[in-house]
Design goal:
Elements (H helix, E strand, L loop, with lengths): L9 H6 L21 E2 L16 H14 L4 H7 L5 E4 L6 H10 L5 E6 L5 E7 L2 E8 L11
Parallel strand pairs: 1-5
Antiparallel strand pairs: 2-3, 3-4, 4-5
Protein backbone atom coordinates (compact mmCIF):
# COMPACT_ATOMS: atom_id res chain seq x y z
CA UNK A 1 0.00 0.00 0.00
CA UNK A 2 1.10 3.54 -0.61
CA UNK A 3 2.65 5.78 2.06
CA UNK A 4 3.56 2.85 4.30
CA UNK A 5 -0.03 2.21 5.43
CA UNK A 6 -0.94 -1.36 6.11
CA UNK A 7 -4.19 -2.79 4.99
CA UNK A 8 -6.55 -3.53 7.91
CA UNK A 9 -8.11 -6.98 7.62
CA UNK A 10 -11.90 -7.07 7.34
CA UNK A 11 -12.25 -9.13 10.53
CA UNK A 12 -10.49 -6.41 12.49
CA UNK A 13 -12.89 -3.80 11.11
CA UNK A 14 -15.92 -5.84 12.12
CA UNK A 15 -14.51 -6.50 15.59
CA UNK A 16 -14.45 -2.77 16.23
CA UNK A 17 -18.24 -2.64 16.13
CA UNK A 18 -19.42 -2.54 19.68
CA UNK A 19 -22.55 -4.25 20.93
CA UNK A 20 -24.82 -1.86 22.75
CA UNK A 21 -26.95 -3.27 25.54
CA UNK A 22 -30.67 -2.85 25.07
CA UNK A 23 -32.84 -2.48 28.09
CA UNK A 24 -36.08 -4.35 28.23
CA UNK A 25 -39.19 -3.35 30.06
CA UNK A 26 -39.61 -4.81 33.51
CA UNK A 27 -43.39 -4.69 33.05
CA UNK A 28 -44.86 -8.18 32.72
CA UNK A 29 -46.77 -8.96 29.56
CA UNK A 30 -50.30 -10.30 29.73
CA UNK A 31 -48.89 -13.74 28.93
CA UNK A 32 -47.15 -13.87 32.28
CA UNK A 33 -50.11 -12.74 34.35
CA UNK A 34 -52.08 -15.37 36.21
CA UNK A 35 -55.65 -15.86 35.03
CA UNK A 36 -58.18 -13.43 36.45
CA UNK A 37 -61.85 -12.83 35.75
CA UNK A 38 -64.39 -10.13 35.17
CA UNK A 39 -68.02 -11.16 35.66
CA UNK A 40 -69.93 -7.96 34.84
CA UNK A 41 -71.10 -9.30 31.45
CA UNK A 42 -72.09 -12.85 32.49
CA UNK A 43 -75.29 -13.72 30.64
CA UNK A 44 -78.08 -14.71 32.98
CA UNK A 45 -80.59 -15.49 30.20
CA UNK A 46 -81.29 -18.24 27.68
CA UNK A 47 -79.83 -19.86 25.70
CA UNK A 48 -76.42 -19.67 27.38
CA UNK A 49 -77.13 -18.25 30.78
CA UNK A 50 -75.70 -18.98 34.13
CA UNK A 51 -79.18 -18.78 35.69
CA UNK A 52 -79.83 -22.50 35.14
CA UNK A 53 -77.00 -23.67 37.38
CA UNK A 54 -77.83 -25.14 40.75
CA UNK A 55 -75.59 -24.74 43.78
CA UNK A 56 -73.61 -27.91 43.05
CA UNK A 57 -72.91 -26.77 39.46
CA UNK A 58 -71.91 -23.29 40.63
CA UNK A 59 -69.44 -24.84 43.04
CA UNK A 60 -68.07 -26.99 40.20
CA UNK A 61 -67.61 -23.94 37.93
CA UNK A 62 -65.99 -21.99 40.77
CA UNK A 63 -63.55 -24.86 41.27
CA UNK A 64 -62.70 -25.02 37.56
CA UNK A 65 -62.08 -21.27 37.39
CA UNK A 66 -59.93 -21.53 40.52
CA UNK A 67 -57.83 -24.19 38.76
CA UNK A 68 -57.29 -21.81 35.82
CA UNK A 69 -56.18 -19.09 38.26
CA UNK A 70 -53.12 -21.19 39.15
CA UNK A 71 -51.84 -20.85 35.56
CA UNK A 72 -50.67 -17.93 33.46
CA UNK A 73 -52.41 -16.80 30.28
CA UNK A 74 -49.40 -18.12 28.38
CA UNK A 75 -49.96 -21.59 29.82
CA UNK A 76 -53.71 -21.44 29.16
CA UNK A 77 -53.74 -19.99 25.63
CA UNK A 78 -50.34 -21.05 24.27
CA UNK A 79 -49.30 -24.28 25.97
CA UNK A 80 -52.90 -25.54 26.13
CA UNK A 81 -54.10 -23.99 22.84
CA UNK A 82 -55.85 -27.16 21.68
CA UNK A 83 -58.23 -26.86 24.64
CA UNK A 84 -58.42 -23.07 25.10
CA UNK A 85 -58.26 -20.73 22.14
CA UNK A 86 -59.78 -17.80 20.27
CA UNK A 87 -62.63 -18.24 17.78
CA UNK A 88 -63.78 -15.48 15.41
CA UNK A 89 -67.35 -14.40 16.20
CA UNK A 90 -68.22 -14.80 12.50
CA UNK A 91 -67.41 -18.53 12.77
CA UNK A 92 -69.73 -19.27 15.70
CA UNK A 93 -72.31 -21.93 14.91
CA UNK A 94 -74.89 -20.54 17.34
CA UNK A 95 -76.94 -17.75 15.74
CA UNK A 96 -78.04 -16.51 19.19
CA UNK A 97 -74.43 -16.04 20.31
CA UNK A 98 -73.47 -14.29 17.04
CA UNK A 99 -76.50 -12.01 17.33
CA UNK A 100 -75.81 -11.25 20.99
CA UNK A 101 -72.23 -10.31 20.17
CA UNK A 102 -73.32 -8.15 17.23
CA UNK A 103 -75.94 -6.34 19.36
CA UNK A 104 -73.98 -5.98 22.60
CA UNK A 105 -70.30 -6.05 21.66
CA UNK A 106 -70.07 -5.02 18.00
CA UNK A 107 -66.38 -4.07 18.30
CA UNK A 108 -65.37 -7.53 19.52
CA UNK A 109 -64.56 -9.88 16.67
CA UNK A 110 -63.16 -12.75 18.74
CA UNK A 111 -64.42 -14.90 21.59
CA UNK A 112 -62.05 -16.99 23.72
CA UNK A 113 -63.12 -20.42 24.85
CA UNK A 114 -62.00 -22.22 27.99
CA UNK A 115 -62.55 -25.97 28.10
CA UNK A 116 -63.82 -27.33 31.40
CA UNK A 117 -64.50 -30.93 30.33
CA UNK A 118 -65.35 -32.91 27.18
CA UNK A 119 -68.11 -30.72 25.75
CA UNK A 120 -68.27 -28.10 28.49
CA UNK A 121 -66.99 -24.59 27.69
CA UNK A 122 -66.96 -21.08 29.03
CA UNK A 123 -66.84 -18.26 26.49
CA UNK A 124 -65.67 -14.71 26.96
CA UNK A 125 -63.51 -11.91 25.72
CA UNK A 126 -59.91 -11.25 26.68
CA UNK A 127 -59.19 -7.61 27.44
CA UNK A 128 -56.41 -5.86 29.37
CA UNK A 129 -55.11 -9.06 30.93
CA UNK A 130 -58.51 -10.19 32.22
CA UNK A 131 -61.01 -12.68 30.88
CA UNK A 132 -64.54 -11.24 30.75
CA UNK A 133 -66.86 -14.22 31.17
CA UNK A 134 -69.96 -14.20 28.96
CA UNK A 135 -71.48 -17.59 28.17
CA UNK A 136 -71.65 -20.97 29.82
CA UNK A 137 -71.88 -23.67 27.13
CA UNK A 138 -72.29 -27.07 28.83
CA UNK A 139 -73.09 -28.90 25.57
CA UNK A 140 -70.55 -27.22 23.23
CA UNK A 141 -73.22 -25.66 21.00
CA UNK A 142 -71.72 -22.21 20.42
CA UNK A 143 -69.02 -23.63 18.15
CA UNK A 144 -69.44 -27.24 17.15
CA UNK A 145 -66.38 -29.45 16.92
CA UNK A 146 -66.00 -31.68 13.90
CA UNK A 147 -66.36 -35.32 14.87
CA UNK A 148 -63.15 -37.30 14.65
Amino acid sequence: MANGQKRVPFAAQVAELKKKPVTTSTEPTFNHIFACWRIQKIQMVDPYGWHELDMQQIEYVRGKLAEFETRTWNTIFVDEKKRNHPIPVAELDCPDAREWMRDNMPDEDTLWTLRFSGPERVWGIFRNGAYHILFYDPHHRIKLSPKK
